[in-house]
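User: Could you check the structure of this?
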Amino acid sequence: MPAPSATAVAAGSGEQSLSSFAINWAEPFVGDALGESIVLTSWSPQPYAGENISLPLDLSQVANLQTLDGLTAAQKDFLVKNGFVVIHSREAQFGDIRVETSQRTGQPYYLTTDAAFHALHLLFDDMLKSLERESFRPQMIAITNATLQQARSDFTEL
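Assistant: Sure, the predicted structure tokens are below.
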């Protein structure tokens, strides 16, 4: 694979060349700009103990004890052992989860990046539907009508 070159455009000054660089795609982490090797390390999961939280938890010390009422015995056991529990939500959207979990019950909630990407995808879907209705549909109708008129015209000339 050829080494890519880069150019930059400074505002108002025209195009300036940058120094060329090469990427070894077979070994992209061999060295940094100073020629030093980059060492990739591995991670092994460890139980999270948190600050001033000793595991297993004593559920009698939970500040908002009423929030445990809806948990099953297995979920409570997991909470005691790990200091947290992930539960399935019945809410349709993430905004509903925030309202239900945080504002009504006072529970903390953890929002993962995949949830944020899902919300972004839903927004994109809505935007695309709107674009199709407001822009693409009228254009397709105009193209279809023009094609129909041309076909009729061509047919009458035969």
